[in-house]
């Protein structure tokens, strides 16, 4: 029985080299392959998507990295935290009369003579990190990883059996690595890698003992090398899933004078040790949204009848968590559905930050902890800031460029789109802010009002747009963070809420992730009704400004979406007006 032509999981470079050889044999000039594919990527897309092979590709995690063999196909999910630049490398070279390629590799398959005919290509470098505030429920379970590991072992054993039976089997990349002539190709240098035997790693156990990574229990960062993609496809703080080749952690530097860039550029990777920052050569990538982190992501149309039942159950749970405060729970639901859906100059349209006041320290220990736990169970990316004078005076909120290391040093406010940030202001006592504290207050205010964070590049500053839901818990109205909505918290009980099943939690997560993405519009007749009400409200209370009127429109939109409706109805608009009346009544 003849096996598959390519082993995409255990030997993906076999497909790369084979398709390159085929393209060269057809008479194509290797220079024409700079910045484009020669036929390898369609094969991987067919395997991953048409043949559902993506489910067999292991995810790079703190657990799996101890078992994964170098030069196999893996997936990595993370946020683009930094863009170190581009890397020049020997993409193609002539070995005697035969053209070879180093694409998707850190080491050369064969030695490259100084007189060899070579083609210098370029690839993009992305430094990716686990998504800040990633909730545990989004991660691959131990059971799922175990299944993938067993599948991988079975596939590897079958592959070895086929290789032993066929004398014509292609040489694996692990065997190439064993050659003392293997050469590492990086920007500005050729450097040798020490020979090591990976053929002995036939089981997961033996792979674990020699993984070579010094990462610990934390989720690893990853240096992703991207090929043939427009730079506009990816930007800072985007979340992506990358599928590609995991390279060896045992790469070593070489001091040989073989600078391919002739000394005009520095090594952009010198501050990313390969045994601490895994390298992944990317074949295929896709941008991820909140729904992609749902464990069970049903392709169900969010029809109003279905959505209404889920909404009612979630609202009951939020009300119980918040001490049977029905008004606060309604505002909390609208807050959790908010997102920036448009921008008008500096105005971020669609945001609905929420400040829950009357939160004393005793209330935080009960309701604050319960609410934080619930949000972590509902939302994929949540983060909490305990606001104190000491925290403000010492923390780095904004990312800063370090030109000594040529790295963007992250800050607390470098968050992915769709993140939820809880600011606990109940711990804020009287004190004096230093210059750092004053600057941090300004950064938090800009995030709240403008939905943007100022990045410090030393010689200049750049405003980076974001989309972060902000919830402030405070005893009185926050003077640091002027929220869109201020709601006095009035609990009437402190009983523990009922336990929630995993199935119900999954339904609530699907609801929050799905309905906030629905389109929305206001019919012409309804728009006239809304305008009349807003004019009347302005005449009744002259303190209402444009931002208040914009907030009411946002609340109307969110109220409709909460029911799965894509157009504002009179019924939902009346609900918004009543909710606003109850809120203002509490403020008196």
TrEMBL record:
Biased composition (Polar residues): 191-213
Record's subcellular location: Nucleus
Stretches with biased composition (Basic and acidic residues): 154-164
GO-annotated biological processes: DNA-templated DNA replication
Stretches for region Disordered: 154-213
GO molecular function ontology, one term from the record: chromatin binding
Coiled-coil residue windows: none
GO cellular component, one term: nucleus
Domain of life: Eukaryota
Main location class: nucleus
Keywords, ordered alphabetically: Nucleus
Pfam families: MCM_bind (PF09739)
InterPro entries assigned to the protein according to its UniProt record, in alphabetical order: MCM_complex-bd
Entry protein name: Mini-chromosome maintenance complex-binding protein
